[in-house]
Specification:
It is a single chain. With about 230 residues, the protein is an all-beta fold. The protein contains 1 helix and 19 strands. It has 2 domains: about 110 residues, Sandwich (Jelly Rolls), CATH 2.60.120; about 100 residues, Jelly Rolls, CATH 2.60.120. The strands form 4 sheets. The protein has a 6-stranded antiparallel sheet with strand order 12-13-19-15-17-16, with no helix packed on it. The chain has a 5-stranded mixed sheet with strand order 1-4-9-6-7, with no helix packed on it. A hairpin with a 5-residue loop joins β16 and β17. The longest helix is centred in the N-terminal third of the chain and has 6 residues.
Length: about 230
């Protein structure tokens, strides 16, 4: 049973769109995706908010939270660093961080037009030392974590969202149609279909990035293309 105090804490009488929830920072928005850098301070909780599209979530760091969906019992959830989920559209909930550290994650919404995209080939080592770890894969998206030594280079293929929730930064100036947005929680960049990017370590240190590859699987490995 939910206590009266908990019921008041997690009320969803007033629901805001996710982009108006102040802990969700909308950095990338186009016809295919919307990408948010999210951070909930220790013992803080969000406003009741609505997720209008299916969305990918990548959790950076261990966390203990309460997710209180409207008209449901609040659920206590434990996350480990690197956990990923694909969640269905329509979620209306309040999220509370029970831990002593910020609850940091990246949310990538799959807009309806993302279904026309074909996924590019996975991250490929060009030189140096790098670890490329798959964390999630289904028919619509895949998530990889790329950890680069200072001398490493890894090629990333679009369409994809690149995130840096572990403190490293992205170059704000990339060639072609690649667009990056800086944020203290996580830099985010959108790579359109057919774009390629060489992600490298810095001169003095490595780099760790999360790659959300968007689109249906391309068995031929021809890269991400938008059908005509």
């Amino acid at each position: 049973m939910v206590s009266a105090e908990e019921e008041n804490r997690y009320r969803c009488d007033q629901v805001v769109p996710i982009e108006q929830e102040p802990r969700h920072h909308l950095l990338i928005e186009n016809e295919f995706v919307r990408a948010f850098a999210v951070e909930i301070a220790p013992h803080d909780r969000t406003l009741c908010h609505h997720h209008p599209h299916d969305y990918l979530m990548y959790v950076a760091g261990d966390a203990e939270i309460i997710s209180a969906a409207r008209e449901q019992e609040p659920k206590r959830l434990s996350y480990s660093d690197g956990e990923c989920e694909l969640l269905s559209a329509g979620m209306v909930h309040v999220v509370e961080n029970l831990g002593q550290k910020p609850f940091r994650n990246v949310v990538v919404e799959l807009q309806p037009r993302s279904a026309v995209l074909r996924r590019g080939v996975g991250p490929k080592l060009i030189r140096g030392d790098a670890r490329i770890t798959p964390h999630f894969k289904d028919d619509r998206a895949a998530i990889f974590v790329v950890e680069l030594a200072s001398d490493a280079e890894v090629e990333i293929a679009g369409p994809a969202v690149i995130a840096t929730p572990y403190g490293t930064v992205l170059n704000p100036e990339y060639p072609g149609r690649i667009r990056a947005k800086a944020n203290p929680i996580s830099d985010l960049a959108w790579m359109p279909a057919d774009e390629r990017l060489i992600l490298s370590g810095t001169a003095s240190a490595g780099r760790k990035a999360v790659i959300f590859m968007i689109g249906v699987r391309s068995d031929e490995g021809l890269g991400g293309v938008e059908p005509s």
